[in-house]
Each structure stands twice: as C-alpha cells, then as structure tokens.
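Morning - 1,3-dihydroxyacetonephosphate inputs below, output right after.
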Amino acid sequence: MTTSISPLIAGNWKMNGLRGALDEISTLAGLLTTGESPRALVVICPPATILSEVCQLGATSGILAGGQDCHSQAAGAHTGDISASMLADAGAQYVIVGHSERRADHGETDALVRAKAEQAIGAGLKPIICVGETEAQRDSGQAESVVAEQLTGSVPDAAGVHEVIIAYEPIWAIGTGRTPTIDDITRMHASIRQQLVSRFPETGMSIRILYGGSLKPQNAREILSVDNVNGGLVGGASLLAKDFYTIISAV
Ligand code: 13P
C-alpha cells in the first residue's frame, strides 16, 4: 500500500440487499465503533432502494455510502435510471461507474462511463471508475494495454482537479475465488499509476487505485499491502459485516 494515500475499502452489494440486510450495517457500525478504529475509509454501495437508510445508519460510525451506477445525464426522460444528484440527495458521497457487470449487461462503453463519471463529479460525488481485463485478454498478454485503453477512455479530464478513484477488477477474478498473483497485481497497479501520473502530473500520485475481484478475509492482508494498492472494492465478502470488517482490519 502506498502510505501517503489514506486507504479506502468499499463494499459493492450489487443486486443484493433487502431491508433486512440493514442489520449488517448496524453490525458493521458496532464493530467499527467498539473495535480498533479503522485505518481505512469505509464505503458501502448498497442497492439504491436502501441507500438513504444505509446513509442514516452508517453516519454515526463513519460508514460512507455510494451508489452503484448513475446516468450520464443530469435529469430527464430516462425511465428507471438514477441521476448522480439523486444519489447525492440520498446522502451518497461516492458512486461506482463502469463496473464490468454494467459494461457487459448494458453495453456500457468507455465514453459512456466517462460521461457518468463527469456527472458524478458535477453532483459532488467521487466516482469509483472500474477497469479490468477478461481472462482471454490476460492470457494473450493484453491485460495492461486493455486497462490502459479503458483508463484513457473512461477517466475524465476533471480527474486532474476533482477526486476520483480507480478500481482495477480483473473480470475473471470477480466472484470466482481466483485472484491474480501478487506480481501481476503489482505490475498492473504500477502501470495504472504510471498512466495516471503521466496524464495528471500534479495529482496522479495521489489518486487511489483499489483492487477488486475475490478480495476475501483470507487474502486481504497480502493484497492490500501491495505497492499502489490503496484499498479494495469488495463484492461477496462485503455482504456479511464480520467478513467485511476483517478485510477493513487487514489494512
Ligand atoms: P467479488 O468480491 O464478489 O469477487 O466482486 C468483486 C466486485 O465485482 C466488486 O465490485
């Protein structure tokens, strides 16, 4: 972990979490306030239906909240969509954009992801911009070039002056229990850092780069201590307060 950047651990609940799951927020809040104080910022990105409750329940224990997606426009005739300002209005401070599941399920392009990130920044949110290669792309030696292209296309110029977060999530590691080797994570995060610094000479060193993809209580300590890994984006293991707290404590 690069020590000058305060780490951030975000939980992406994806399409999981009815109101009953709010008990996990209360449990996590209890663990965070009674245990050793966390060395990381803690963010939960629940489904939008319970976002405002998560904001309220988390407030006293420092748990921050984020959306999982936002629209690329500010408002208008877009049935079923959620704008960045609606998320901010509900109490969110972050929003995930360009997750590989949205890129795959909804055909989201880099240009669209960039527009979403711009909307997020405009609404005062910090976008968590996701990038990552498929297994075939890694096997054919293209992982770094694919991620570099996604970064170029998805990260807005405003990232030079507004806070954004990058999440590297190799698609083949998501929900599979498989992770890249420590060497591979080190190389990829260094390559992302290099690209950020070359595009944003003033601020590129301080942009958080999260790792995501089967981050678990068992591997968190090792992965989170890699250079240029400034925290994690956690799927499955963020659904249970105890597991998520163990990952937070690994920082
Ligand atoms: P898992 O932690 O379940 O592999 O999911 C990672 C992810 O997609 C977080 O956004």
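Note: The mean pLDDT is 96.

O.
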